[in-house]
Amino acid sequence: MTTTLKSKLQEDLNAAIKAQDKLRSSTLRLTLSAITNQEVAGKEKRELSDDEVLKVITKEAKKRREAADAFAQGGRPESAAQETAEGEILAEYLPKQLGDEELTAIVTQAVEEARTSGAEGPRAMGAVMKIVNPKVAGLAEGGRVAAVVKKLLAG
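^ thats the sequence. predicted structure below, dont judge the formating
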């Protein structure tokens, strides 16, 4: 029987509780509650697929990164370190992110595709993003992708 990502999170939470790993257990608890909130949102309760669970984990990891940045800028390094540590725990459950070279190669190919269909310059951003997003979904953050697209379209 294949284990779902949600059940893996639950198993890891149980192991963290037994090991008395407070950071890991609190991070996984918050993530599982975010998944449950997503499952009961809407008109009826449903079970999330692994892809949907991955999206929730990605969103939670992004929240941790943004909070760490805010705490660092606000002069609260201990809180920033806590958020960073939580983000690293969540990153273990996410697919490996694309490197800069890989991302640039995918975007370059998409820019060429957009140009063959007549889209040129900065106005082609939407067309290029439409081509790139399905290829890099879950493998690169949207802000990073948009920055590379802008750079290639401008240059």
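The radius of gyration is 19 Å.
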